[in-house]
Amino acid sequence: MDDIVVVAQGTQSMRNIHNDPDMDLSVEALFSIMQERQKRYAKYAEQIQKVNEMSMILRRIQMGIDQTVPLMERLNNMLPESERLEPFSMRPDGESASK
Question: pLDDT of 31-66, one tens digit each?
């Protein structure tokens, strides 16, 4: 392994970090923190991917509904008036269109 040499600012003194136990602990601690952060971000990325997939599924469902409802209305209007169904609505009963 190559040794890392640090030159202190303002002086010509150098030290070998490879043999510095304090620096080893600092590097290990930093590495551990970065690993934990990477795991957290990987979980976030996975959750975002699931949300994106769900959003895409919901868009496809909405497109299907948008295509089907006009066909249902057209078919319903072809029926004799006495056999027609009430207009289709995706809103629960009692919920106004202004909400």
Answer: 999 999 999 999 999 999 999 999 999 999 999 999
84 Cβ contact partners less than 8 Å away, ≥ 6 residues apart: 76, 77
Per the confidence metrics, is the pTM higher than 0.85?
A: no
Query: Do the Cβ atoms of 17 and 4 come closer than 8 Å?
Result: yes
Rounded distance between C-alpha atoms, residue 90 and residue 76, angstroms:
16
Kindly give the residue spans of alpha helices, DSSP state H, lying in 2-99. 21-78
Residue type for position 34? M
Residue 4, C-beta contacts closer than 8 angstroms, at least 6 positions apart: 16, 17, 18
